[in-house]
Amino acid sequence: DHTLFAKAEGKIVFQTKGPYNRKYVNVM
Asked: What are 19-28's pLDDT values in tens digits?
């Protein structure tokens, strides 16, 4: 989990989807 980097940036959700497990960063 990369949720530890959610500090100072608010809540950052890292999701892995796609055939190549590409990382999508959703800033809430």
From this structure: 555 565 655 5
CA quadruple 10, 16, 20, 25: dihedral, nearest 10: -10
Backbone angles phi, psi at 19, to 5 degrees: -70, -20
Domain that holds residue 6: 1-28
Cβ within 8 Å of residue 28, ≥6 positions away? 10, 11, 12, 13
The rounded distance, in Å, linking the Cα atoms of 10 and 5 is 9
Nearest-5° Cα angle at 19, 27 to 10? 10
Q: Specify the number of domains making up the chain.
A: 1
